[in-house]
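Example record for the data management plan.
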Amino acid sequence: MLGRSRLRPIEKQVIVITGATSGIGLATARLAARRGARLVIAARNGAALREVAEDLQDKGARVHAVPTDVGDETGVERLAEAAIDTFGRIDSWVNDAGVPLYGYLDEISTEDHRRLFETNYWGVVHGSLAALRAMRSEGRGAIINIGSVLSDVPVPLQGAYVASKHAVRGFTDALRADIATSDPGISVTLIKPTSIATPYTEHARSYHDEAPKTPPPRYSPWLVARAILRSAERPIREIYVGGGGPALLVMQKLMPGIFDLAMRQFVKPLQLSPSRRAADFLQRDNLYGPRQDGRVRGNFPAHREHSLFTLAQMYPGASLLFGAAALGGLALGLGARRRAHDRETARSREDDRYSAVGRGAV
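Corresponding structural encoding:
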């Protein structure tokens, strides 16, 4: 991995973001635009993508929109070419596009299972390799793949999604190892969100009557966006966003029997809502086509804006200060970072309240 100084600051970067019209991708695009990056944004829904681009351009950002299905290798190659033709290079590439699927593995059709992998796994492969080819001419860049804590902690009902994210983790780690010597200036980061308050469940195809839901604690999509942009400026191997998932990982490793029992007893009620019917809650899912209601946040009653666990991974130097200060009762290092994030969070809430995007899609 290269030194920190080799990656450009966000305000000087050209950043490609897939899945940019909803959830984490949309939050990342808005935050990067606010910080002065030039953006190339991609999603399947061309109309929604234009709305996002126009909204960001109205705020002064330089944005180029390229309708893209990441499962189509040729389309992803065109996306990379468009970025270079428009802005001359690619500094960071964020593979965010993904689709959810709820159902036990023995009830999911092979067609649905394959389609999920086309987006969740092959989309990451196509994007990563296109980015690598483009970045080699510059000798530096950041490839940032959005995985999931579920690649470490498998849960029932999302087996196909779990498998796809496990494949993303394996591919990302292998790619990092492959280019460590040949391309030391290119960093490869895996972001592992836990439960994030995006419209994830509203986009899901489900094989059950109850409406899908994400278990608490849920974290803000803006926290994921900040982790992504931090990785674009500083090489970081991986970042867990939110502390709930890693806590389950520790439980799985130390007490596997208790973990398996908990999964059998509690995971289904934590992932399906008996008070809401899927037919009423879900509109058309996004497995084979884009949704029409892209938003950064989903319809959740509450979520957390901060995670000290995540901040410690983003700012390891500050985390050392935090550990030392904790002995004296003062969290000085991360406290300063949190105050800075508080200011960004306030602006993010304004973005949530006002958006020109009424019909976005992943």
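Summary line stored alongside the record: The domain at 4-353 is CATH 3.40.50.720 (Rossmann fold).
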